[in-house]
Design a protein that fits this description.
single chain; alpha+beta; five-stranded mixed sheet; 3 helices
C-alpha cells in the first residue's frame, strides 16, 4: 500500500512539473529529458520487482576504490645471502676444567688411606693361584695396577666405591683404555666393596687390557676422576 502511494505521488509530481512548464518559460528538450529520467529513477527505485534497481548512493562503492593486489611471496634463491639473525650461536664445547687432588682427597672416605704401589704387564694374573686367574685375549696383554688400602680409624670401616661415579682412564701410546672387571673378593678398585677392621690393610687391583705391541709404559698415566676433581698416577 505504501509503495502504491509513493508511485502515485511521483506520477502526480511529474504531471505537475510538466504542466508547469507550459505556464512559464518553456523548458528545453534536454531539461525535460532530465526531469523524466529523474522521475523514472525514483519509480524504479521503489519498485521491488525490477531486478536492476538503482544502487543507493550511500551503499555504492566509490569509483576510485581499488582492491590491493595480494603480494606474491618470492622464494629466496640459493645464491642469495642469508639474513643475519639476532640469535647468538652456541659456543663449542669448552675444555674440561678439573681440580687436581690427591688420591685420598678424591676418594674422601674418612679413615681410608689409599696408596698406589706398582704395576705389572702379563698374559695371566696371578701366575699361580688356586682360586681364580685373569687371562688376556689373543693379541692382548694385561696391565695390572696394585693399590694398598688401610683403615686408619679406630673403628671398622665399610668402603663401597661401586655406587659412586668414579672414572678410570689409562693413557698408553696415545690411546686411552677403560678398566675391565677384576675378579677379586673385594671387587677391585673400580668396584671396591670391602670392610676393614681398625688398622687393617688390604690390596686392591685395577686391570686394563691393551694391545700386545704397546711398549711405552714408562710414559703411561692413569687418570682418576669424579666430578670436577682428578688425580693422576704415573706408572712406575
Amino acid at each position: 500500500m505504501k509503495k502504491k502511494c509513493i508511485l502515485l505521488f511521483c506520477l502526480c509530481f511529474s504531471v505537475v512539473v510538466l504542466a508547469g512548464c507550459d505556464s512559464g518559460s518553456e523548458l528545453t528538450t534536454e531539461e525535460r529529458d532530465k526531469i523524466a529520467e529523474y522521475s523514472a529513477g525514483i519509480l524504479l527505485q521503489h519498485y521491488g520487482k525490477y531486478s536492476r534497481r538503482l544502487v543507493r548512493q550511500e551503499t555504492a562503492a566509490p569509483d576510485n576504490t581499488e582492491i590491493p593486489a595480494a603480494a606474491t611471496p618470492v622464494p629466496v634463491g640459493k645464491d642469495k645471502e642469508p639474513v643475519e639473525s639476532d640469535e647468538t650461536p652456541a659456543e663449542g664445547g669448552q675444555e674440561e676444567n678439573l681440580r687436581a687432588v690427591s688420591l685420598n682427597d678424591l676418594y674422601h672416605v674418612s679413615g681410608l688411606n689409599v696408596r698406589y704401589r706398582s704395576y705389572v704387564v702379563c698374559k695371566e694374573y696371578p701366575k699361580k693361584t688356586s682360586s681364580f686367574q685373569l687371562s688376556a685375549k689373543k693379541g692382548q696383554r694385561l696391565v695390572v695396577m696394585q693399590f694398598d688400602l688401610k683403615n686408619t680409624a679406630k673403628k671398622p670401616l665399610q668402603v663401597n666405591l661401586g655406587e659412586r661415579q668414579i672414572d678410570y682412564q689409562l693413557d698408553v701410546d696415545g690411546a686411552t683404555y677403560k678398566p675391565t672387571i677384576a675378579i677379586q673378593k673385594n671387587g677391585g678398585m673400580n668396584y671396591l666393596d670391602t670392610k676393614l677392621k681398625p688398622g687393617q690393610s688390604e690390596k686392591a687391583i685395577l686391570v686394563f687390557e691393551i694391545p700386545e705391541n704397546s711398549s711405552s709404559f714408562g710414559a703411561a698415566v692413569l687418570t682418576i676422576k669424579e666430578g670436577d676433581s682428578a688425580s693422576t698416577v704415573r706408572l712406575k
